[in-house]
Amino acid sequence: MSTSMERAVVLRSLSCTPLVCTRFFARSSSKLSRLSPLYSLSRCHRSVSLLHHHLRPISTASRPSTQLRRHFSSLSPRAIATPPAQPCSEVVVADDVVAEKLGFDKVSEQFIEECKSIAVLYKHKKTGAEIMSVSNDDENKVFGIVFRTPPKDSTGIPHILEHSVLCGSRKYPLKEPFVELLKGSLHTFLNAFTYPDRTCYPVASTNTKDFYNLVDVYLDAVFFPKCVEDFQTFQQEGWHYELNNPSEDITYKGVVFNEMKGVYSQPDNILGRASQQALFPDNTYGVDSGGDPQVIPKLTFEEFKEFHRKYYHPSNARIWFYGDDDPNERLRILNEYLDTFDASSASSESKIHPQKLFSKPVRIVEKYPAAEGGNLEKKHMVCLNWLLDDKPLDLETELALGFLDHLMLGTPASPLRKILLESGLGDAIVGGGVEDELLQPQFSIGLKGVSEDDIKKVEELIMNTLQNLAEEGFDSDAVEASMNTIEFSLRENNTGSFPRGLALMLRSIGKWVYDLDPFEPLKYQKPLIDLKARIAEEGSKAVFAPLIEKFILNNPHLVTIEMQPDPEKASRDEAAEREILNKAKASMTEEDLAELARATHELRLKQETPDPPEALKTVPSLSLSDIPKKPTFVPIEVGDINGVKILQHDLFTNDVLYAEVVFNMSSLKQELLPLVPLFCQSLLEMGTKDMDFVQLNQLIGRKTGGISVYPSTSSIRGKEDPCSHIIVRGKAMSGRTEDLFNLVNCILQDVQFTDQKRFKQFVSQSKARMESRLRGSGHGIAAARMDAKLNVAGWISEQMGGVSYLEFLQALEKKVDEDWDGISSSLEEIRRSLISRNDCLVNLTADGKTLTNSEKFISKFIDLLPSTPSIQSASWNARLPSTNEAIVIPTQVNYVGKAANIYDTGYELKGSSYVISKHISNTWLWDRVRVSGGAYGGFCDFDTHSGIFSFLSYRDPNLLKTLDIYDATGDFLRELEMDNDTITKAIIGTIGDVDAYQLPDAKGYSSLLRYLLGVTEEERQKRREEILSTSLSDFKEFADAIDAIKDKGVVVAVASSDDVDAANKERSNFLEVKKVL
User: Is 1077 helix (H, G, I), strand (E, B) or coil?
Assistant: First the structure.
């Protein structure tokens, strides 16, 4: 089964659970407001969105190992590759003579034990560009070029430039080479990031030819972009006045402008921005590199061009190569570009100046847009933020602070986190703890969902708790659990689908960009051993108490941000924007207005006119002969232990065992479904009769790499009943297999559902998280809602992770006080229905020896499971009414969806549908919804299990206009003309998705999903052959299936009340209005 086939399942399984940890720096959603990279170019695919925005975190963190990814940013677990099977002596490094001849001086060469790599730092003689060339046997090759780009205001220049340079260049003179690469390469990563002080352009691929194609397009884009001569690209990506007809109102349009309107609609983001800008009032971090929507329209084209001229220069560049390609070839490619430049003063002009420390604390009160008519009583937020030093910290201190951060906040049992949440003063944590990705480190912590009267109490509680931790230190089990979690995470080096070489690059660049040592962040072993020894010798209190005192308690550089809900803020901001636009229009003559209408039309015409074939041919691509004819093979052996099915995947995992225990959910009563996510959280975060939850959490941290529990639901193609399970995922070093299964048994059978107060916290946290998702990932909410109107699996998922779930939580909050006994017995009933060896399945991924050794422990685990008589499957034949719906929230942007089941029209699945849906996203929807419509993203998603084909937009200024674009998709396909090159490109891009790079744990997990859904190897091969033989006639035929969405589709929009009112005025009662916040 392809990734796109699997994606819908993974989505459903992840999107409805509060317990899934995100892959990149997990802990609190507010973290994403400051965490770099703040902005990235690529549109948000639905697969990204429902996973809480892959690069941006929201989590209640049940798997401690993923917690660390941020704290240890300078030596993150992502900064180590699994030791290769062969000795490293086989790794080739660039020839010194070749390097010299090509104009590079070798500055330093080091062997990095942690990632079994030889890293060489070069300096380009002519320009001073610095290059890190990292050689090892990792086939997932990575390139990145990074420029220091400090903004002086909040017009968003770095961010708009990051979008714009990828819109055509000297060698690739088409509208968007970036999109051509998305369409037709085998990339394992392709994006760009804007940080507060730097801009990164990374690519990755496992195919060498493809990799060098990507590198060339990116180098040409950053050094020779067309955008510096093309005002229309600046208008499209940044901002412009739009006027279709001189009699209408003028509006603002622009991709970044609308992206940032979405960012500024989310309270957590507003808080993060306010915190950063108040902590750094005197340097570049005091402004928003992403752009403030109120300031973006002040940016001129001249300033934009000058910023590129000044900073996008080799003298200001740091360039990274990583992987198993030829290191001499890397230097040859670079020299071709670098040699055309002379040295410049960019490097000294882009230096980041440190913020001087305050002599006394500062307090700031900000307002954020709240829902009109909602209850504002517990809607305040408060966050305490410290700037820890006036200079970068040494590695030893940084490591100790990261460790301290994990001890205080890294797991649900961590004292600062636990005390804040148990206080009942707020619903969820805000602030990201220690943040060390900028020049100077910060520490932030606070609560949201606070009542105004309790603001001061929260501040006092934070200070008192920190004071107590400094005085009393930490429990030795907590220290051991943290140390094991960190060491496990470093050893495992599981970066998910994020390339290891890119994780390594981001770690290194975090120091290198400030002219510090780029090697140091890659070497964690010695400092970790030293820290361990210090803790053993002096005790943890002697190590951590001075850090709390120096950097936090006795540090006057403290900024307290209080956020107040303001139901009028959204309408005030809109009115202020309208007034500016009205004034602009009033100042224009009739000729001016006619010219503006002409320019608007001209820009749209350019956006909607396809590139000529000769321009498209300039972008290098692979041929079908470069593509493997067979799908990626994952070994699987299906066996049986004590009557329970066991799936085994014999793969090299660096001595880690990955396990999933799967229980069938089909016997569960329908009314209990919404309780399932809270049941999962309770298993991990309530105690047993012998251990409180802190001890249990610490035991998991000490003995394993983490355990998580969540529901997973999908349709099965050709079947009425959905596939619905609870999955318990765990991992441990092979020598800890017995401990892992003992702990899984303990959480499943011994945890007691008796802690009413903790359960109420779970409800409050889940409600806060769902509200945050509604504002930030409205397209995910819309998608889940549409699925719930169209099939049973969608309905189940929405009950556990959509608007219905939020409504359930709102009611449950009151019910916990009124009927705790009833809730507690419902949790027990869920356990009785689900936890049984009948219909249980165990999935294991490890090397053969570990798999064989684990059998006796699994046998014991299965014997301990209750054997319940087979219960009749519950009848879940439910759906939401198939009416068009608007979920109204306080927002400046919309998320617009439309979907239908195309199997109902008689369409039968063919592999070509993957190629076609990707092509629709990358051409028609990209051009019409994003480029010309001004949304941050527009895309479609085909769930091949259920037959649901959905259109979705992200941070969209439009509503009905976007629906009209969706409805015209069938005609787009009928009129489509494609030459063989274009079809080949579309096929290759689809295979790139299908063969997405996976680490061993992901391979084993994907194989499990295929097994559960009945997708055979024969079917995978058949679909692949259909993909590879896709022709133009397939596109034309698909048009009839797509028309079902136009004719019978259901609409869900997460939108502002103004836009919904306007839509209902234009099309009488088109949308049923639902208010949930």
Answer: coil
Instruction: Return the structure tokens found at 1010.
Output: 């295929």
- Whether the CB-CB separation of 161 and 304 falls below 8 Å is answered with yes
Average pLDDT, the chain: 90
Q: Which residues of 836-851 are buried (b: 16+ CB within 10 A; e: fewer)?
A: bbbbbbbbbbbbeebb
Categorize the per-residue pLDDT at 39 as very low, low, confident or very high, splitting at 50, 70 and 90. Answer: low
Contact 315, 129 (CB under 8 A): yes
Which tokens is 1006 given? 């994907």
Q: Are 466 and 416 in contact (CB under 8 A)?
A: yes
Burial, 1037: exposed, middle or buried (Cβ in 10 Å; 0-12, 13-18, 19+)?
Answer: middle
* E-only strand ranges, 766-901: 841-846, 885-888, 895-901
Give the chain's end-to-end CA distance (angstroms, integer): 39
Pairwise CA distance, residues 6 & 631, whole Å: 14
CA–CA separation, 757 and 666 (whole Å): 30
**Domain limits, CATH 3.30.830.10, in the chain:** 96-239+299-351+588-617, 362-498+508-565, 638-864, 885-1075
- Write the pLDDT tens digit of every residue in 568-619: 999 899 999 999 999 999 999 999 999 999 999 999 999 999 999 999 999 9
| CA-CA-CA-CA torsion sign (782, 783, 789, 795) | negative
CA angle 888, 60, 885 (to 5 degrees): 20
- Per CATH, the homologous superfamily of domain 96-239+299-351+588-617 is Metalloenzyme, LuxS/M16 peptidase-like (3.30.830.10)
In the three-class reduction of DSSP (H, G, I as helix; E, B as strand; rest coil), residue 253 is classed as strand
DSSP-derived secondary structure for 47-90: HHHTTT-TTS-------HHHHHHHHTGGG-GGG-PPPPSS-GGG
Query: For domain 638-864, which architecture applies?
Result: 2-Layer Sandwich (3.30)
Contacts of 1054 (CB under 8 A, 6+ apart): 774, 778, 779, 781, 782, 886, 887, 889, 891, 894, 895
Contacts of 801 (CB under 8 A, 6+ apart): 15, 16, 17, 677, 770, 784
Question: What is 362-498+508-565's CATH number?
Answer: 3.30.830.10
Q: Is 102:332 a contact under the CB 8 Å cutoff?
A: yes
Residues 859-879: pLDDT tens digits? 999 999 998 766 667 777 789
Residues that are catalytic: 162, 237
Beta strand segments in 596-743, E: 637-641, 644-650, 656-664, 706-714, 723-733
Question: Is the distance from CB of 88 to CB of 450 less than 8 angstroms?
Answer: no
Yes or no: say if 806 and 817 are a contact pair by the CB < 8 Å rule.
no
Q: With respect to CATH, is domain 885-1075 assigned 3.30.830.10?
A: yes
pLDDT at 633: 93
Q: What is the pLDDT of residue 94?
A: 76
